[in-house]
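B., you asked whether I could sanity-check this one before it goes into the benchmark set. Here's the sequence:
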Amino acid sequence: MSDFRPPSPEDIRAAANRILGHVQRTPVLTTSRLWQGKPIEIKLENLQSTGSFKLRGAFNSLLSVDVPAAGVVAASGGNHGAAVGFAARALGHPARIFVPEYAGPTKIELVRSTGADLVVVPGTYADALAAAQTHEANTGAMQIHAYDAPMTLAGQGALMLEWEEQGLEADTVLIAVGGGGLIGGAMAWTQGRRKIVAVEPELAPTLHAALSQGHQTVVSVGGIAANALGASRIGRLCYDLAVSQGVTSVLVSDADIAAAQRLLWQELRQFVEPAGATALAALISGAYVLEPGETVAVLVCGANPDPGPFAER
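And here's what the prediction gave me:
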């Protein structure tokens, strides 16, 4: 996978075998407590180590190459940085993580807890990425991109492989989108065998804007999910897969996302960040409407809300 292309199903299966033993096999359930009394399948990837799916791509990236002595570097809104820091420590590599201020205290402390060299950057994710690229150029450290890299997508695609091994039956899977690593991996694995629906905040419509305009484009991002879904430009790998598979994006409001967060807590006692509730928001708000007889699954992808559950009130 040295060339810049989406991973194949064979690449994803190899990634799943590579990261086996380094990541959690997260639970799934079918529940009728979240939407109109109808059963929906849920995968609780928020219970992954470090609280998000990002760990899969991080371990796959680090286990696929010879890491230089200078170690690894990453830019992150928080979850990717924590994953890279965690994986680097587990494998004995130094890591420097650049995080924008808007990541918030919960995610900043999470990254710091991995033992990585943390640098908080004024501005946005784009500013953190620029700083990470400068560090890469100056030191020879290996850049682990948060979403637009074949090995990252292959690791994230292992999540969908795992879900199918656990008995996923739904026709349609709702997945939140930021830069496109998670949904890109899912599309690369399923190859159109299931309908994949992209769910994005109205205030961070990265894939939605690209599909509407017919090309990747830079958008302004904000809102309550920006520290996880705040990429200003969709990844090329994700965009190409979405176009080739005819994937569509639906948009949800911050109020819809917050309502889905509360529902996950009230009904399942899952305390998730806004990004983790975004896919569910599409269902409960009516942004995505099922066809008669269509069955649906929702991926809950992130568990690091700000403030955290034990923050001082």
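One thing to flag: Residues 28 and 166 are 8 Å apart (CA to CA). Otherwise nothing jumped out at me.
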